[in-house]
Amino acid sequence: MDKIVIEGGVPLKGTVRVSGAKNAALPVLAATLLARGIHRLHNIPSLRDVETMKKIMSRLGVGFEQEMDTLVVDSTQVVDHEAPYDLVKTMRASILLLGPLLASYGKARISLPGGCAIGARPINLHLKALAEMGVDMHLDRGYINAQAKFLKGAEIFFDIPTVTGTENIMMAAVLARGTTVLRNAAKEPEIQDLAEYLRKMGALIQGAGTDTIVIEGVPELKAVDHAVIPDRIEAGTFMIAAAMTRGDVRIEKCRPEHMTALLEKVESAGAKLDVGQEFIRVLGPETIQSVDIKTLPYPGFPTDLQAQFMAFMCIAEGWSMIRETIFENRFIHVSELRRMGADIEINSNQALVRGKEALLAAPVMATDLRASASLILAGLVAKGGRTEVHRIYHLDRGYEALEKKFRDLGANIWREKE
Ligand code: EPZ
Fold first, then answer.
1. Ligand 1 touching residue 405 (CB < 6 A)
2. Distances in Å between the alpha carbon of 98 and those of 24, 101, 106, 155, 316?
3. How many angstroms separate the alpha carbon of residue 362 from the centre of ligand 1?
4. What per-residue confidence (pLDDT) applies to 337?
5. Which of 47, 67, 83, 118 lies at a 20 to 30 A Cα distance from 90?
6. Cβ(223) to ligand 1 under 6 A?
7. Atom of ligand 1 nearest to the CA of 127
8. Which residues does the annotation mark as catalytic?
9. With pLDDT > 90 as the criterion, what percentage of the chain qualifies?
């Protein structure tokens, strides 16, 4: 296992380029099952979760070739329809294979993802919608056995605007017989990106990015090329890092229009922003103002930036109230930040952060993907020596060479074997 070591106190300076979005790449990879042929995908980030998805899909018979920065996907010979527990348990987004397999092959056997550190993360809404589309499902030894002679269009209402639920059902609906209407659908940019790819394949989709999506089933789709959008959570992580370290960083190859909630909060904290079409320049403030946040479905403040923003508020002037409304257990990073001297009081889904002059270097342990990023940000500003972040495999799931990108911005940060 690796750890990341940081000697804090360096204001980040320079330019960083954002990688492709993990949460766009995963559904786009799954969607290649909807059209037999050769798909050429660009801007796919090299992440552990992407490797896991490729491993599962290879077992189904899908071929992958990396040609420079293009991932060539050959979905001509899909021969199996099972996503095994040993792989699914390491990456819950494998559930995104369910919709495409049913749409293309009428059957799927997917291990139930199981819980994860940040919450129970049930998939009941995915399964309820598929049942309404005519899918027979039963649970067998932890696997969902699903089959359908054909999928029929349906009127679906999501009790909660689920991101992968919206993606899964959108992919099931594009080859269904008739029209599917998704109400209270999630509106994330990654959903819009997936819809863009499906439309290029020949799907008839209206309303992606709004809370009502209408999909007209078509008989077949064709393999096409696609470039996934930049990762707004990675870009947001760099924005917070630049502000926290009182640096001057230009974040390139990003989409500011996907990050309006964070832009507003980082500006309220005192940072100066120069926002272009595909870049954001962040000048950190001398004094960090404390700011309250509440995580919400897009376009609200993203839950995937809550832990990073909390690290930021730990060194702000005054008190900040952070409310997590999406997941029931997404404050695991708090006990690790406290080891670095943070003053945080939790009351149910609210964390009151009392800003302090400084955080103190310490050995800490990563527990989930975004908590790892939060601890690295804390290490970048911590005083008094070296911060060591252990169990960094969590980080590698969703950030491409993060410590190298920070090192290129002047940070004293490196990776070591445990
Ligand atoms: C996606 O997860 C993202 N993952 C998560 O990013 C992100 O945090 C989350 O959306 C919220 O934005 C991917 O896109 C691969 P949800 P997802 O279904 O789809 C409840 C990261 O760090 N719910 O929108 O699993 C659920 O428990 C990851 O990159 C049900 O109750 O999230 C949660 O409370 C972490 N039943 C809420 O809805 C269901 O059937 C939102 O979950 C589905 C969801």
1. no
2. 17, 5, 10, 19, 44
3. 31
4. 98
5. 67
6. no
7. 40
8. 116
9. 94
Domains of the chain: 2-18+230-417 (3.65.10.10), 22-227 (3.65.10.10)
Centre of ligand 1 to C-alpha 327, Å, is 8
Reduce the secondary structure of the chain to three states and give it as a string: CEEEEEECCCCCEEEEECCECHHHHHHHHHHHHHCCCEEEEECCCCCHHHHHHHHHHHHHCCEEEEECCEEEEECCCCCCCEECHHHHCCCHHHHHHHHHHHHHHCEEEEECCCCECCECCCCHHHHHHHHHCCCEEEEECCEEEEECCCCECCEEECCCCCHHHHHHHHHHHCCCECEEEEECCCCCHHHHHHHHHHHHCCCEEECECECEEEEECCCCCCCCEEECCECHHHHHHHHHHHHHCCCEEEEECCCHHHCHHHHHHHHHCCCEEEECCCEEEEECCCCCECCCEEECCCCCECHHHHHHHHHHHCCCECEEEEECCCCCCCCCHHHHHHHCCCEEEEECCEEEEECCCCCECCEEECCCHHHHHHHHHHHHHCECCEEEEECCHHHHCCCCCHHHHHHCCCCEEEEEEC
Q: Report how far apart, in Å, the C-alpha atoms of 320 and of each of 202, 233, 307, 323 are.
A: 48, 21, 13, 10
Which atom of ligand 1 lies at the shortest distance from residue 118's CA? 35
Q: Is the distance from the beta carbon of residue 26 to the nearest atom of ligand 1 less than 6 Å?
A: yes
What is the CA 410 to chain-centroid distance, rounded?
26
Determine if ligand 1 sits within 6 Å of the CB of residue 148. no
pLDDT below 70 — which residues of the chain? none
Q: How far is CA 360 from CA 222, 339, 385, in A?
A: 55, 8, 8
Residue pLDDT, tens place only, 188-238: 999 999 999 999 999 999 999 999 999 999 999 999 999 999 999 999 999
For residue 125, give the ligand 1 atom closest to its CA: 40
Cβ of 121 below 6 Å from ligand 1: yes
Of 19, 23, 333, the one to substitute when testing ligand 1's pocket (max ligand atoms within 8 A of C-beta) is: 23
- Ligand 1 mutation pick, 190, 326, 333, max ligand atoms within 8 A of CB: 326
